[in-house]
Amino acid sequence: MSSEPRLSLPAQPQPPAAAPNPAESEVLISIWEHLNGSLGGGKLTVEHCRIEPLPRRPGSRHVSAYHLLVHDEGSGQKRVLALIAKRDTTRGVGKAAREYAALNFLWDEGFGSEQQLKIPKPFDLLPNQNLILQESASGTKLTASIGGDSAESTSHFRMSGLWLAKLHGIKLSPPVTCSYDAELASLDLFVRELSGVLPPAPLPRVQRLAEAIGQRLASCTDVTASLVHGDYHPEHIFVADDSITVIDFERFGCGDPAKDVGSFLAHTRSSGCLARKPPRVVDQETGEFLDSYFSALPLAAGAATASRISAFDALSSLEALYYVAAVLKVDDQPKLAAYLECAERSGVLLTHHTAIRRRAISSPQYRAAAGAGA
Q1: pLDDT tens-digit readout, 128-154
Q2: CATH assignment, 7-135
Q3: Which of 49, 142, 255, 292 could be disulfide-bonded to 234 (CB atoms 3.0-4.6 Å)?
Q4: How many helices (H) and strands (E) does the chain have?
Q5: What is the CATH number of domain 140-373?
Q6: pTM
Q7: What residue segments make up the domains of the chain, in order of their start?
C-alpha cells in the first residue's frame, strides 16, 4: 500500500532452518525476491529474517511465517514485523487472489487494525506466484478460551458474536437470494464417504441426521444472503486484550448467515468435548456468543436466521466427522463418536420450535428472536 514505508533487505535471505519440500522452498524464495525488490527510498532496514513454514492440512495452501527484525533508521528503534505468506496449490489456483480481494474489501468496511473487531492487514498480492502477503494476527486462538469459565473467556466469546454480526450487517446491493445446492451436494458427499469408513453401528444415526439437515435446507426459500466468512470457528479467531482478529477468508462470499453461526457452535462444542471441558461451561460460552450476536442485529433479521441455525450446526459437525474419518483416515472410535454426538446436540433432530426453545436456554436475545419468528 502506498502509505506503508518501504523495506530494504539484505542482498541474500537468511535460509530457513528446514524447508520441508521443494514446493515450500519455492514459496519462500519467491516471497523473498518480491520483498527484496522494494529497495530504495525507504527508512526501514530488515536486519534479520527468520522463515517458518507452518503446518498445513492435506490439500491446503502452503503457508509460511516471516519474522523480520526491522530497524527504523530515523528513530534508531528496532521492532519485529510478522508477515504471513499463503500460496495456492495447483488444485486451488485463484484462492489467493480472491482472499486478497476479500481482505481489502473488509479493511475498507471498517475491519482495520485500529478497530476492536478486525482482520489481518493485507500487504500485497503476487499474481504470478498465486501468493498473498498479510499481517500476522496477534494474540492466541479462541480455542484456548473454550471452557475457561472466566470473565476473560466470556468477553472473548461475546466479541466473537459482535464480529460476526458486524460482517452480516454489511448490506449487499442488489440483494442476493440464497441457494443451498452446494450444501446439499456436500451433505451427500459426507454421507457417501462416511458409509465407507465408519462401522455399521453409527451409520443409521448419520443417515437420520442427513435426512433432517436435508429437509431443513430444502424448506428454506427466499432467504436473503449476507456476506459470510464461510468457515467461522475458534481456530480462525485470535483474541488479544480487548480486540479480536479473524483470519482465513478462503471461503468468503455470499450465503446464509446461519451457516457462520452454525459453524461456530459446532466447532466450539466439538473442541470443548475433545478437550474434556464441562458441557455446561461450553454451553454458557456459546450462549454468550449468541447473545452478543443477536443483540447487534435487527430483531427481524435475527429471528429469520434463528430457525435455520441447527441445520448448519449439524452439517458442520458432519463435515468435521467426514474430514477426520474419511480424509485424515483417523480410526479413533471415541473421537469419531464425539463428532457424531455433537451433531445430534445441534437440535436438528427435534421439531422446529423445540429446537429453537432449546437454543433459547443460553441466550435471552435468541429467545426473543425465536418468539418473533414463531
Answers
A1: 888 898 999 989 999 999 999 999 999
A2: 3.30.200.20
A3: 142
A4: 12, 12
A5: 3.90.1200.10
A6: 0.85
A7: 7-135, 140-373
